[in-house]
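Handout, section B. The chain below has 219 residues.
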Amino acid sequence: MSSAGVVAYRGKGNVYVNLTNRCTCACVFCLRSFTDQVYGYSLRLEQEPSAPEVRRAIERELAAEPVREVVFCGLGEPTLRLPEVLAITEWLSAHLIRSRLNTNGLGQLANPSVAVVDQLVAAGLSAISISLNAADPVAYQRTCRPTYDHAFPAVLAFARTCVAAGLPTQLTVVDYPGVNVSACAGIATGLRADFCVRARATPRITATESGSAGARACR
């Protein structure tokens, strides 16, 4: 193994893929500020895994027990390793295994020379979940603290492109004080995307992908 943290881990009947610990946001509620643990697994990587290493890790999990889908969701932003996401997605698609990308929606800014959504669709991605977490640019800058200027409209544009490409799209928010959940739900409706609220992980709550009352449960 090339890393101390796990590359593939289980939760909610899925296998999750931990490609990187790097991120283009520093959200005020991010669990990375107090833990490396998700579902009881340590995700702190010493070195980012290669695509073949990830495939082997997924194969080990699939051999142990069937899964609903494979989800790109670790301790960082998967689109910072877009070539690996695409290669692994193509492999999953060839084996008729569902795949989902959990992303902050800034993948196009991180990969300006390629049409990110088109490539994800061509690779066979089954669904995408985009973290919105704010209803306007000011709140987004305050809450998500992105490394890019004009990040909020880029997230909306990315989501719009996903929907237009026919990719099943979900927008999510974290149940955090000050987040205008109803306004975010309205944005999702306007974009014709699904919507869910994620429970906020705290030092006293195990880090999960739990949903919250009043919205479709997060997968």
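Note. The two ends are 28 Å apart (CA to CA). Compare this with the example in section A.
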